[in-house]
Amino acid sequence: MPKSDSANSIRQLRSGSSLPQHVAVIMDGNGRWATQRRLPRIAGHSEGVKRVRELVSVCAEKGIKYLTLFAFSSENWRRPKLEVKYLIELFVSALDEELKKLQENNIKFRVIGQIDRFGENAVRKIKNAEALTRGNDRLALTIAANYGGRWDIAQACAELARRAQEGKIEVDAITPELIEASLSMHDTPDPDLFIRTGGEQRVSNFLLWQLAYTELYFVPILWPDFDRSQFDLAMDSYVARQRRFGLTGEQIEAIRQA
Ligand code: IPE
Ligand code: IPE
Ligand code: MG
After folding, report:
1. What's the predicted TM-score (pTM) here?
2. Fewest Cβ atoms closer than 10 Å to its Cβ: which of 72, 114, 250, 253?
3. Among the atoms of ligand 2, which is closest to the Cα of residue 76?
4. Which residues line ligand 2 (CB under 6 A)?
5. Is 30 in the pocket of ligand 1 (CB under 6 A)?
6. How confident is residue 2, by pLDDT bands cut at 50, 70 and 90?
7. Phi, psi of 92 (to 5 degrees)
8. Burial letters for 188-226: b for 16+ Cβ neighbours within 10 Å, e otherwise?
9. Which residues form the catalytic set?
């Protein structure tokens, strides 16, 4: 079922100043963290994995239901070959090490993006982890890998064009809801809060469609330094905001009190 935009917004309005249900993160600054310490960039990526573990635990503890992390963009293939190779190896080995813990902690794992390019071994391990954790419902952890927001929208449009060509849908029936239902995140509510570490204030082709009404939080802290206390500051910033979704502040108050 496609998520309805208005149902989504009303749910978010009613939740008032409660914590976000879905947090999406661009984990940026690993390379700079390492360079500052005269270490190779890959040392920053290794340290970054520790913060991923920590963040997953913190979100589970706080009752956040969805956590989506940008691990590798479709543009990151342009990096030096060795760094790309290391990033893929690091991802696969972290998954090997964490799978048991994901199961124990009732965490559902999945990857969005064109994973085929990572090779057979990685694809097999990803599919296996997804299958094993499918029934878990404490926290849904989504890793965006070889993912790009433009690719996601394009593949959804191609899918709908195919269905129209086969006569299964009318062209005029193509609405935002129908496009949304063909996106990689179709079964997940849009992010309430977007966090980008590392100081850059851009979206870098992450969840372009889904971020339409997300609260944005940019922080100069480099990802390997983004610990629990930093996450709490992001939560504080989120709860202090009033989300309006096009309505007036007075309308929002009335909905909250209803
Ligand atoms: C983010 O850190 C990790 C990936 C993009 C895989 P960077 O590697 O981009 O770190 P900086 O931005 O160069 O410091
Ligand atoms: C975005 O970071 C992608 C990930 C964190 C995986 P980048 O470091 O690749 O983004 P740009 O190139 O600075 O925009
Ligand atoms: Mg970067």
Report:
1. 0.95
2. 250
3. 9
4. 26-28, 70-73, 76, 200, 202, 204
5. yes
6. very low
7. -65, -40
8. bbbbbbbbbbbeeeebebbbebbbebbbebebebbbbbb
9. 28, 76
Q: Which fold has domain 21-147+191-241?
A: Undecaprenyl pyrophosphate synthetase (3.40.1180)
Tokens for 224, please give them.
Answer: 């390997």
The pLDDT assigned to 1 comes to 38
**Two structure tokens written together for 180:** 């949304």
67-115 pLDDT, tens per residue?
A: 999 999 999 999 999 999 999 999 999 999 999 999 999 999 999 999 9
Q: 27 in ligand 1 pocket by Cβ < 6 Å?
A: yes
If one compares 17 and 180, the residue with the highest pLDDT of the two is 180
Structure tokens at 94: 């972290």
Is residue 197 within 8 A of residue 26, CB to CB? The reply is: yes
Beta strands 66-73 and 215-218 are: unpaired
The domain segmentation of the chain, as residue ranges, is 21-147+191-241
CA of 221 to the centre of ligand 2 (A): 15
Residue 135: burial class (beta carbons within 10 Å; 0-12, 13-18, 19+): exposed
